Amino acid sequence: MSRRLSLPAGSQVTVTVSPTRGKAESPGDGVIKRSGGGIGLTSPAPRHSLGGAGSSTVATLQLSPVRRSGGGGSRYASLHGGAGVDDSADEFVHYTVHIPPTPERTVAASAESMDAPAPNAYEDGGAAEVRPPQRSYISGTIFTGGINQATRGHVLNISAASSAAAAAAASANMSCKMRGCEMPAFLASGAGGGGPCDCGFMICGECYADCVAAAGNCPGCKEPYSAGSDTDDDNDGEDDEAVSSSEERVQLPLTSMAKRFSIMHSMKIPSNNGGGGKPADFDHARWLFETKGTYGYGNALWPKDGHGGGGGAGFAGFEEPPNFGSRCRRPLTRKTSVSQAILSPYRLLIAIRLVALGFFLTWRIRHPNPEAVWLWALSVTCEVWFAFSWLLDSLPKLCPIHRAADLDVLAERFELPTARNPKGHSDLPGIDVFVSTADPEKEPPLVTANTILSILAADYPVEKLACYLSDDGGALLTFEALAETASFARTWVPFCRKHGVEPRSPEAYFGQKRDFLRNKVRVDFVRERRKVKREYDEFKVRVNSLPEAIRRRSDAYNAGEELRARRRQQEEAMAAGTLSGALPEAAATVKATWMSDGSQWPGTWLTSAPDHSRGDHAGIIQAMLAPPTSEPVLGAEPAESGGLIDTTGVDIRLPMLVYVSREKRPGYDHNKKAGAMNALVRTSAIMSNGPFILNLDCDHYVHNSAALREGMCFMLDRGGDRVCYVQFPQRFEGIDPNDRYANHNLVFFDVAMRAMDGLQGPMYVGTGCVFRRTALYGFSPPRATEHHGWLGRKKIKLFLRKPTMGKKTDRENNNDREMMLPPIEDDAFQQLDDIESSALLPRRFGSSATFVASIPVAEYQGRLLQDTPGAHQGRPAGALAVPREPLDAATVAEAISVISCFYEDKTEWGRRIGWIYGSVTEDVVTGYRMHNRGWRSVYCLTRRDAFRGTAPINLTDRLHQVLRWATGSVEIFFSRNNALFASPRMKFLQRVAYFNVGMYPFTSVFLLVYCVLPAVSLFSGKFIVQSLNATFLALLLIITITLCLLALLEIKWSGVTLNEWWRNEQFWVIGGTSAHPAAVLQGLLKVIAGVDISFTLTSKPGGAGDDGEEDAFAELYEVRWSFLMVPPVTIMMVNAVAVAVASARTLYSEFPQWSKLLGGAFFSFWVLCHLYPFAKGLLGRRGRVPTIVFVWSGLICMTISLLWVYISPPAGARELIGGGGFSFP
C-alpha cells in the first residue's frame, strides 16, 4: 500500500510513503535516495505490519526526483513503472519514520489484504471506473520532524463515539477516502447507494460540502459533481497523471479532522480555485518538511535574493546585507555600583556607629574620674581624635563602584578598515611609557631590563608605542644593560607575539610554577621556548657581568692612556734636549669610564671627576631602537632571517626605545624623581609626542599585556575627555606568604581607592598610571562642575573649552574654526583670552618652539571620535592612521636642549605644569592639582593584574618607606595643597579624602599616648573610668561590634580577606608608633626651622637566588637596627611589665579590684596583639639566636626579679610595703 506525495511547490523532490511489513522487505532496503537534487527517504529498520496493534509502525519514506511535463511545466508523479526514475544508480541515506498506535487504529485488514497488489486503474486501457489504491491514514495524529531528523507522531484526543464510528465505517469499507479523514462516507440517494459521484469516490458529508464550496470537482475523478463521467477513460489516466499531488494539496481543502490540527493560514500561496483571493488553510504535510513563512528584513536574517516578503513597495532592499553594527555604539566601559544588599547595610552601620560614638563620647565627658582626672582627660582627648579620624576615613567609602572595559569594542572601533582608513591601520592614539631609575646598585639593571622587555612586548600597536628610560644617575652600567635588552628584545618580543605568552617579563614567565603548555597548540612551542630560555640565561649572565666588564675595560683603556701620556712626555723632553733622569714625574691621569667602542662615557664615571659625577654630568639621549614603520614587517624562517626562532607570519617590529639622562650641574635643584619625570615629558613631546603617558617604576613590569588597551578604553569612551589619568592598582611579588608587614596594602588599593573612584576618582600613587598629556601640561578639562553651598549640594556646570580661537572679530566671522588648545587659567581659575594664552605659552613651558608647537598636536590626537556621544570637539575616525615622522639629528638635538638643567628657569614646570615639586610625595600632589582643576580620574581594576612589582619585606626598609610617605603627607598638610584650600571644582567627599591624606600622620601622636595609657593605668591602679558602668560597657560593645561588621562588609564588596584586613590593622599600629611620629617631627622641623628632609631610595630586590625559596625571604629575617624601632619596643616592654605588676598586686591584695585590672589588661593585650608582627621581626630568622634575644632575656629576668621582690620583700621592708610575706589565701 503506497501513496506518492510531492513536496510543496518550489521543491525538487517528491515523497513516497510505503507502509510495509517486516517480511515484505529486507531491513536494508529502507534508505534515503539522492539523485539530481532529489532525496528519497526509506527506513533501514525492520518494519512491521500497519495493522499490528499496540506497537508503533515503521513507514518507508522515499524521496525521488520528479519529472516535468514537456508542455505545461506542471509537476507530476507517474504511477507507471516505466515512467518512474531509475533507482538503481542513486545514492541513499537512511531515514526512519515512527507511526505510533492510536485509539482509532485497530486491526482493520488482514495481512493478506495488506500484501495484495493494488489494482492499476490504467493498465492496458482498462475500465474507467477503477478506484485508486487504498490508503491508510491515522486521524488525530500530527507529525513533526524533517530531513535527517527523527520524525515523531503526536496523537490528539479523539472522542470514543467518533472512534467507534470510524472503526465501523472502516470495517465496512465505507469510510471517507479524503486524506486524513476516516469519517463515515456520505451515501447518495441514487441507485446503488454509492458516493455522490459516478466514479464511486467515497466522501463524508463535511468533506463533500467543502469540495462543492471550493471548486465543485470530485476529488477522485476531478470532474464536477453535477455531471457524470462520460468521457474517454484513456484521458482520465492522463489527467490523473498530469495532476501532481502538490496541486492536489492546493485544490483539496482540509477536512474537518485536519482543521483541528491548526488555526494558522498560509500567507504566501494564494488560492487558485476561485476562492476570491482567500488564502488556503495551513497544510501540515508541507510544514512537516519545510516552512514557507517569511522573516522580512533585519539583522536576524537578510534575504540574499531581495525577496524577503513583507517589504512592500515602501522598503528599499539591498543586494548585500548592511553592517548593522556600524551604528550600534556600544560603550567601551561600564560602571556598576556595589550591590545594595551590601552597600545599604554598610551605610547604615556607619550611621549607627557614628551615633554610638556620639553617645559614648558624651557619656565619657559627662562622667569624669575624680580619682585620676589627668588619666581621664588624656583618654577622652585621644578618643575624640580617633572618632574624628575614623569619620574622615569612612566618609569617602560611601560610594564604591566597579568598572570594566570591553576590549572587543575598542578593536572594532579603532582597528577595523573604514572609508578613511581602507588598510585598517590602527587609529588608537600613541602612548609614551616612562620608566625611571636612579641607582644601579639599589635598582639592579636586570630588574629594569625585565620591565623594559615587558613594555616592548605589550599588546598595543607597535608604531603607537614608545618607551623612555630615565637614568637619573647617568651610569654606564644602565646604558649598556639597556643596549643588551634591546638586542634580546629582537628574540623575546616575536616569541611573545607568536605564542601569546603571559606574563611578558621573561624572569616572571620562566619563573612561574605552573604548566607552561596550558592553552598552547603550536607544535614548535616547546622547542622554541627551550631556545628562548637558553638565550635568556645567557642574557642574564651578560647583564650581571657588565659591572666587572666595564671595570676591566676602563682599567685597560686608562692604562693605555697613561702609557701614551708618558710616551708623549718623553718625546717632548727629547725634543727639548732634557736628560731622561731630569724628567718630572707624570701627572696622575683621570680614571675615566670607557664605552665598548673606545670613547669616554659622558655620564657618571666609576671614579668621580669634574663633569662626570652623579650631580655633575651632561645630558644624554640615545635611541636604542628607532621608530618602526607603519606597515607590518613579517619575519621568516631562522635560515633566512638569521634569528633564533621561526617568525614566519609574525610582526617583528619593535617599539621605539630611548635612553635619557638629564643634565645635572652643581648649584641647581634637580627635584629628584619629579624633575626626572618632567624631563621625560619634554623629551617625549619632541621625539614621539604621544597624547597619553604611562609611568612605571623600574621594578613594575607589565603583567597583563592588554593593560594599555584597557586604560585607553576609559580615555576614549564617552566622557573620557574629562579623565586626566587612569590609575591601576599596585600588586607585588616576592612577599612572604603571611604578609607580615602588610606589604600588599590591599585595604588601601581595593577598598579606599575603589571607594574614591565613586567620587571624583582615585589619587595618583606614583606608578602604574596612564596620564593625558594635556592634563599634565596644566590645562583645564573641557567641562567642569563647581560645587557650592552646604556640603557642595549646589552644582554649576562650566564649559571651559571655547568653540573658536582668536580675536573677537575672528570668532564672529569664523564660527566653524576649531580651537586646538583648552584654555589656560591663572592661579585664581580665571580664564585668559586667546591672545594672552598664546603669549604665555613660551613663558610657561619654556623657550623651545618645537615643544610649544607639539602641545596642540597632542591635544588633538587625544580627543574623542566625532561620533562619540557627548563629544563636542572630536577628531574624525582614521585621523591617527598615518605614519610617524622619522627621527633626524635636528629632532634629537632639540630633545637634548629641553633636558638641560637651566631649561626650567623662570617657567612653571613643577609649580603648575608636569609633576609638582616641593614634596617627597610628588605623586599625591600632582593628582591633587588635577582634581582641583576639575579633572576626573578612573580606577582600572583588571581581572588579571595589570602590573606587578616588588616591595621591601625587611622591617627596617618597610618602616623607612612608610616614613617617606608620612613625611610627604605632613608636607601636604602644611602647604597650599591642603584640601582645606581646594577649589569649588572638587567634590566635598573628595576633599575629605585628600584632607585625610594630610591628617593621618598626626593620629600617631594620640596613638602613642593611648598605647601607653593602659600601662600607666595598671601601674597606678587607676582606670580611665571610675567604675565599669553598664552604659559604658554597652556603648563600647556597640562600637566594637559595628566596627567588626563594617570590616566584614568591606571584605565582602572589596574582595580582600580577613587576614589581609587584620594585617593592615596591625601595621597601622606599628607604623603609627614608629614611622608616623618621626614624620610629624620631620615635617614640623621643615616648616618651622627649614630643615630639609633627606630622601632614601628604596632598595629593589634582584630576584631569588639559586638556593630556592629559602633565600627568597632572607631579607625578612634580617634585623637592621633603626631609631624608628625605639618607640614600639618601649611600648611593648612597658605594657608587658605593667600587666605582670598589676596582676601580682591584685592577686595578693587584701581588697583586689579585679575590674580595674581587667580593663587595663584588656587594653594592654590589645596593644601587644597589634605589635606582635613587630616583635616577631625583632627575633630574626627561626633557628638562630640574634643578639636581641639576649637583651630580651635580660629584661625578662629583671622583671621577674622585681616581681619576686614585690611579692616576697625582705623582712625589714614588709611594713614599708604594707603587707606581710607571701601566703596562700
From TrEMBL:
GO terms for biological process: cell wall organization; cellulose biosynthetic process; plant-type cell wall organization or biogenesis. InterPro entries: Cellulose_synth (IPR005150), Nucleotide-diphossugar_trans (IPR029044). Mn(2+) binds at K673, D697. The chain crosses the membrane at residues 993-1016, 1028-1049, 1121-1142, 1154-1175, 1187-1207. It comes from the Eukaryota. Keywords: Cell wall biogenesis/degradation, Glycosyltransferase, Golgi apparatus, Membrane, Transferase, Transmembrane, Transmembrane helix. The active site is at D472, D923. Residues 9-19 have a biased composition (Polar residues). Residues 230-242 have a biased composition (Acidic residues). One of its GO terms (cellular component) is Golgi membrane. It is found in: Golgi apparatus membrane. Its main location: Golgi. It is a multi-pass membrane protein. UDP-alpha-D-glucose binds at S436, K442, E443, D472, K672. GO terms for molecular function: cellulose synthase (UDP-forming) activity. Residues 1-55, 226-249 are annotated as: Disordered. This is Uncharacterized protein. It comes from Miscanthus lutarioriparius.
